Amino acid sequence: MPEGLLLYYITDRTAFAPDERTRRLRLLDKIAEAATAGVDYIQLREKDLSTRDLETLAREAIQVIDNYDDLKDDLKDDLKHDLKTENRATRTVLLINSRTDVALSVKANGVHLPANDVSPKEVRTAWHRGYGAGAPARETSPGNPLISISCHSAKEVIQAATNGADLAILGPIFEKKDAPGTAPAGLKALRQACRSNIPVLALGGVTLLNAESCFRAGAAGIAAIRLFQENNLAEVVHTLRGL
Question: Quick one: 6-241 is in which CATH superfamily?
Answer without folding.
Answer: Aldolase class I (3.20.20.70)
